[in-house]
Structures are given as structure tokens and as C-alpha cells.
Amino acid sequence: MRIALLQSQLSRGRLHHSHYSRGGYAGVVGVGSSPTRLSAGLLPDSFDEQFQSFVEGLSGGTYSGSAFTVVQQEALIVGYLMLLAAVSPYVLGLFFPQTLNEQFFLPIYKDDAVGRTAEIYWKLMYATLGILLTTLAVVEVFTTNVSAAQLLRDTYLLWATFYTAATVKIRVEATRLNIIDVNRFGIQLWHSLVVLVMWASVYFSYAAYS
């Protein structure tokens, strides 16, 4: 009879609150209340609230806790697609080196010490970006109570800063150092587009939290 009663309550969506002791099942049953609360003995207190906020966010609700708002979702997705377009040639270069080396990774600097230094500086910038992204994740995970969306948003801030610096670097090398041997219009235009999209993504993803 007890099993039949539990099955009946579950089928009606009324069973929602179970308590577990360290030794096992301790007893049941809260009936007739909201099914969104779970006991601390089963899951963390905030889990059900975060899940409810997440569901509300996906359905177009207002921002609460760690949920995604519609604006935030769109901003983060656009930012990701922009980064994917920006860096995918370098990733593909690992698998198709001959094709990309001939058609994409063309030499742009003069073949001298200054040009070599400019090439090395790109590696230094990428390495710095990598350690900053990792450090940001470590700091926010262990010292703050941020959601995954907030952490992702903050990484976009670093990416936007990186591409801003890259755009300035190319301009300085072309206009002041005079070490770029090719027409920089396409390169500069592409980097400027990445900068604009990434800063827009950062702005709207931050605005979603305000």
C-alpha cells in the first residue's frame, strides 16, 4: 500500500521532498507543495533554485542567479562564433599545414631582425592571453561565486583586449616601424571587425546582469 501511495503521488507530481540520513532512507514525504525544492540532505540547497532560474532563463524569463537571459545568450553565442572565425584557420593549420601555409599564413614582415622580433611578439601575446585566461578561471572558480555564464563573459573581455592590442600592433608596425611588406588593409579590416564584435558581445553580456 505504501508503494502504491508513493507511485500515485509521483504520477501526480506531488511528491517533492525526501530526507535521507547517513545510514540510508529516513522517511518521506512532503505533499502538495511546490516541486522545485529539494532537501539539503539530497542535493545542495541552491541546486533547485539554480535549475529553476536556468529554466526560466531559457524560456525568456528575467535574469536570476546563474540563469541565461535571452540577451546574454545571444551576446555570448555571437562572441563565440566571432572567435571561432578568428582562430579556426590557426587550428586548421595543425591538420592542413601545406595548404594554409601557402594560402593563408603568408609572410607580412620584412626579412630582418625587426621583422623577426615582430613575429616572435605574436607568440608572446598568445602565450600571455593563454595564461591570463587560465588565471582568470582559477581565480573566479576558487575565490568567487560566479556562474559559468559570468566566467565565459569575463573571458570575452580578455579576448576583446587581445584583439584590440593586435589591431594597434599591426597599425604601429605599418605606419611607424615600416616593417610590413604587404597591403595591410584586409588584415586591419578583419582585426577591426573582430574587435567591434567582441566588445559588443562583452557590453551586451554585461548589460544582461545589470
Proportion of residues in β-strands:
5-15%
Radius of gyration over all CA atoms, rounded: 26 Å
**Sheet/helix structural class:** mainly alpha
If you average the pLDDT, what whole number results?
Answer: 76
**Major sheet size, sense and barrel closure:** 2 strands, antiparallel
| H and E order | HEEHHHHHH
Unreliable stretches? 13-44, 57-66
Give the overall silhouette.
elongated
Strand order of the largest sheet: 1-2
Q: Counting H and I runs of at least 4 residues, what is the number of helices? A: 7
Distance between the termini: 52 Å
Tell me what the structure shows:
With 210 residues, the protein is mainly alpha-helical. It has 2 domains: 2-43, no CATH class; 70-207, no CATH class. The chain contains 7 helices and 2 strands. The protein has a two-stranded antiparallel sheet. Strand 1 (15-21) and strand 2 (24-31) form a beta hairpin. Helix 3 (70-92) runs antiparallel to helix 7 (185-207), helix 5 (113-143) runs antiparallel to helix 6 (148-175) and helix 6 (148-175) packs antiparallel against helix 7 (185-207). Mean pLDDT is 76; it is low at 13-44 and 57-66.
